[in-house]
Amino acid sequence: MRRSLAGVALAVTSMVALSFLIPLAALVMSLVKEQGVTAAEQQAAALAPVLTLTTDPAALRESAASLDAEERLVVHLPYDGALGPSRAPAALLERAQRGRESISQEIPDGWICLQPVVLADDRVAVIENFVPEAELTRGVAESWAVMAFLAVGLIAGSVLVADRLGAKVVRSSRRLAQASHALGQGDLETRVDPMGPRELRDAGVAFNAMAHRMTQLLAVERELVADLSHRLRTPLTALHLASERMAGTPESARVEAAVAELEAELRAIIAAARTPLAVGPMGQGMLGTETAPGHPPSAPRCEAAEVVRRRTAFWSVLAEQQNRSCTLDLTQEPTAVGLSDDDIAAVVDALIGNVFRHTAPGTPLGVQVLRTAQAVELVVEDGGPGIPEPDLALSRGSSTGSTGLGLDIAQRAASATGGSMHIGTGPLGGARITVTFALATPPPPTRTPRLPRRRR
Questions:
Q1: Residue in 417, 425, 440, 412 with CA at minimum distance from that of residue 385
Q2: Using CA of residue 206, residue 212, residue 217, residue 222, what is the dihedral sign?
Q3: Banded pLDDT at 270 (limits 50, 70, 90)
Q4: Number of domains in the chain
Q5: Contact status, residue 335 vs residue 303, Cβ threshold 8 Å
Q6: Nearest Cα to 171, choosing from 202, 199, 196?
Q7: Cα separation of 267 and 239, whole Å?
């Protein structure tokens, strides 16, 4: 930006300087030439009274010397010829003698001035004054050099001023961009000091107001999540009492385990909602990733196949009760992804839960974990009616009869690792959802301290 402003200042100042310098240079040259010609005409006119009084060559030379023009003034007498070397063309000289008119005209080597003088015997003598070309351009080059120097100084000064002003604008813009980038990375405490032009100052004030409002909204959202999660404690207590009344039955242990797991999830949600907002992978905000000041957060990492195996085993119990066939196919290769166990578990629970929620009992279910060269694929398919509008299903809160949170959770988790999600039709005849996670980068090798050698 500074270079652009300096270029604009250079172009504008150069055009203005040239528009003034070119006519001014021509005017200086014209004035110098006019002064030389005027001086020559005045010298010739000053010698004319002397010639009317005497035609003595010695007196005429003495008078020409007094006018500082002895070498240039030549007198053409009608009977003695020219007193000095003449440069006047014969045609002009004859014209001045016969026509008795003053002639001032440019010739190839300079400028010639012819002044006719009528003598006592009615004869005509001609005073010639020749101005060489050097006299007509004396001082023009120096004047042009001074004007060029002033123009260069003016252009350099304007470029310097534009660069200084541009530096101030660029500094303000760079600080605002850095603050915006820091806010996008999750630093909610970042603010800018409004500076620079009025528009940038207004932008800085608006940015600070936006950051402050965002912090308030996130705080309200975290408190709301914590409050809503805390309100679920009441139905959980009722479930605990119901499970205690069911003690001794085959279902009591399973219900108690499910209630305990649900309570643990609520505790985790409340604890995550109370912690400050940190930055997750790929710029996604995650709750519950508070780190010590001055230390970068550790990158999450887990084996996706192992988490899928555990969560599928949990859902297979409910599948047996509903007479669903649940198949599981896991790859034997490493499936490390850059997400935590809870994130992968949330994706698996969301996808399998959608199958139980939107298909009739007895509908088959299949789960696969595949490994490709650069990614891990989680495939969940069923034999239900499928998803007629995949694009609408991916819009959070827009799908019919559902909040759309399950697919949104899966899509956000895939995007956090640089992956994607695809909805299609599987071999079972129903929906086939493929969630692709990018493989996690291997951790850097840890260096073991070298033991000092002991000398014998």
A1: 425
A2: positive
A3: low
A4: 3
A5: yes
A6: 196
A7: 16
For the chain, how many residues are written?
456
Q: Is the pLDDT of residue 367 over 70?
A: yes
Same domain, 279 and 360: no
pLDDT tens for each residue of 377-427: 999 999 988 888 777 777 655 444 554 567 888 888 899 888 999 998 888
Are 310 and 277 in a shared domain? no
Q: Determine what percent of the chain is predicted with pLDDT higher than 90.
A: 11
CATH number of the domain residue 199 falls in: 1.10.287.130
Mean pLDDT value across residues 335-345: 89
Question: What is the rounded distance in angstroms from the CA atom of residue 45 to the CA atom of residue 61?
Answer: 15
State the distance between the two ends of the chain, measured CA to CA, in whole angstroms.
68
CA distances from 323 to 284, 357, 360, 362, 428 (A): 39, 15, 10, 5, 16
Separate counts of helices (H) and strands (E) for the chain: 12, 14
- The structure's pTM equals 0.46
**Domain at 411, CATH number:** 3.30.565.10
Residues 187, 183: Cα–Cα separation, whole Å = 5
Average pLDDT, the chain: 79
